[in-house]
Amino acid sequence: MWQLLSTTLILLPAALAGPAAQAATCNRDNCLRALVDSKVSASASAFCATYTTAVVTATAAIPTYLAGCADSPTRVSSACSCIVTPTTAPGLTAEEVAYRQANYVGGVFGSPFVLNPNPGAPDPPRPYYRAGGSGLYTANSTSDPSIANHTIFTPNTPPPFKMPIVVWANGGCIFAGLRFAEFLQEIASHGYFVIANGPPELAGPGSTTRVTDLKASLDWVTQRKDGGRYGQLDTSKIVVAGQSCGGLEAYSASWKDERVKMTMIFNSGLLNTNNTYLLADLNKPVAYFLGGPSDIAYKNVSFFLPRSTQNN
User: Is residue 2 part of a domain?
Assistant: First the structure.
């Protein structure tokens, strides 16, 4: 899960962020025709109402009347999404949102459990990469006393323009800002300012980050608490991004936050389909970077995205 597999890029425009967009792109293939057959429609509706509430990979639960789906859980889930009205959960109170953002792993899009309480030993040595990145602006990593428990990746010499900003959440929600150092340093070398969750360490302590860490980064950059030490920052161009568990945090930090102009999800997606309705409040573009169908997170994205937005 630590390596970024980026063979599939899925761009989700803001207009498609809500679950309603799926219904407009339903294709009446053999699988969907079997579901809407009047002979089984009542049974099919009851089946789909529960089938779409969790990620399913087993074929044993697929009814025999869905032979047209070729025993494919992905096709069944896609067809079911065309006949099931998405459940709109009651509005969350401000107090509940604040609690989830601070305490759920992954925030409001995540779950109330502790993930990876002990990250253990560092990963083995990584393949060679170009120190400082390959861009025009050689970059490095640093920390800043004005924002504790975060790591900054920035060009050594500030470029002569306002740098777009990337706010990053680590895979595993690991409390270690150097976990994706090579990747983030590469981004910074092309003239971006990057701030990641966790202190400048490769393996953090036995704890996980929270969405509030991303929110702290957003507050810090928009209020320019750095005092201008890193050059010009373009606070009108802020991306929140994350990998795996960090992708859930990126979802949650972007949710209803107008400062965020784009959300980037790497090897991640919705683990809990009951949270699909929350996507309607992501009113800026969302980009998904996945490793194709073999990516462990692929099914957590493909089940709710129109196929026309998926580019291999």
Answer: no
CA distance linking residue 109 with residue 285, whole number of Å: 17
Rounded to whole angstroms, the Cα distance separating 18 from 304 reads 9
Structure tokens at 107: 């925030």
Question: How much is the pTM?
Answer: 0.67
Match 């504790």 to its residue by tokens: 148
Q: Look at residue 204 in the predicted model and tell me its pLDDT.
A: 59
User: DSSP state, 65?
Assistant: G
What is the per-residue pLDDT for 112?
59
Q: List CB contacts of 172: < 8 A, sequence separation 6 or more.
A: 1, 2, 115, 116, 119, 179, 208, 244, 245, 246
Which two three-digit tokens encode residue 181? 């150092």
Stated as kind and residue range, the H or E segment containing 297 is none
Tokens of 292: 């194709």
In this structure, are 202 and 143 located in the same domain? yes
Domain total in the chain = 2
Phi, psi of 215 (to 5 degrees): -65, -35
Q: Where are the beta strands (DSSP E) in 107-246?
A: 139-144, 147-155, 163-169, 193-197, 233-243
For residue 246, report the phi and psi dihedrals to the nearest 5 degrees.
-65, -25
Q: Report the amino acid identity of residue 56.
A: V
Under a CB-based contact definition with an 8 Å cutoff, are residues 215 and 235 in contact?
no
Distance CA 35, CA 43 (A): 9
pLDDT given at position 119? 47
Domain final residue pick, 53, 83, 113: 83
Whether residues 68 and 113 share a domain: the answer is no
The 8-class DSSP code of residue 23 comes to H
Instruction: Report, as an integer, the average pLDDT of 36-64.
Output: 69
